[in-house]
Records
---
Amino acid sequence: MSGTKKIPMRKCVGCQEMKNKKEMLRVLKTSENEFVLDATGRKNGRGAYLCFSADCLKKAIKNKGLERSFKQAIPEEVYQSLEKELGTLENG
């Protein structure tokens, strides 16, 4: 057996690039149909991944990447809260 561990890769719904899962932000749809940011990547629910940049969020909004991932329309206030939370993560 080889000693190398497989690194989980995920595709950003904004820029469509494959990156290490730990380098990305998980947007989560809970069973109550709420959308939250999951910084740990361990919460239960359907997830989609975004890079830690406002540009990728803008691209995801423009190309409807999140809507495609969750197979449903996403309310405008969800995008606004994502922008706000992403801003605090980028600055913090």
---
Amino acid sequence: MTLFAGVLVMSGCASKKDLENCRLENKDLTSNLQTTKEQLAASNARATSLEEQLRQSQNAYQLLQQSLDKSLSNASQNNVSIEKLVDQINESNQYIRHLVEVKSKSDSLNMVLTNNLTRSLTKDELREVDVQVLKGVVYISLADNMLYKSGSYEINDRAAETLSKIAKIITDYKDYDVLVEGNTDNVPISRENIRNNWDLSCLRASSVVQYLQTRYGVDPKRLTAGGRGEYNPIATNNNEVGKQRNRRTQIIITPKLDQFMDLIDKAPEAEE
């Protein structure tokens, strides 16, 4: 009997030790997962940036080739001097370099913005917040159950900390405009003051915009609220997982439009 009791004690100690080892291992794995997610977000942003730069370079080459062909044609038809032809080519090259520099600067800022936001989010927040850079635009997608009260457009208390971190990023990057876009699944809704999913998506976007303005002081001139109802799904609505993914609010951060209009104004005028 004494021997049996001793075996039980040793077995209990071994189980506690194994449990503690499992806890430590789980803690390490969780930490490694967080690091991996941050590295993946940065890598994705960098890959997107490189793809955009490659596309821009290809477009620049095509633009240069077209400019050269046109200049050669003008030179042949109008006896344009070689010096003038060289000037036209140099002017086109300078404009192309300017476009590439601006695009490269924008891509770099987007990467920094994305990395700063990702690092500021907790592990729990990263499960419900997706940050991506697509075609030079930063998309922050938030699940509806972390933002709103169920079936409502009112911001819940749980969302305050996450929105404060996003607001800080928006405030730090003053040269960007912000579009808040609401999206729903295809399940019909009809409640007091909410006629359908169009209403719900617009009201939710408006709630986030006003929250950013009143709680965190984001300049309302930089903010736009919009709703797309059920008509911009990213997954199937045939199962609950897909519906949950479609019920989201996107905060879209883009360079200000007037900056690109300035670039257009600086384009070299074509010779008649």
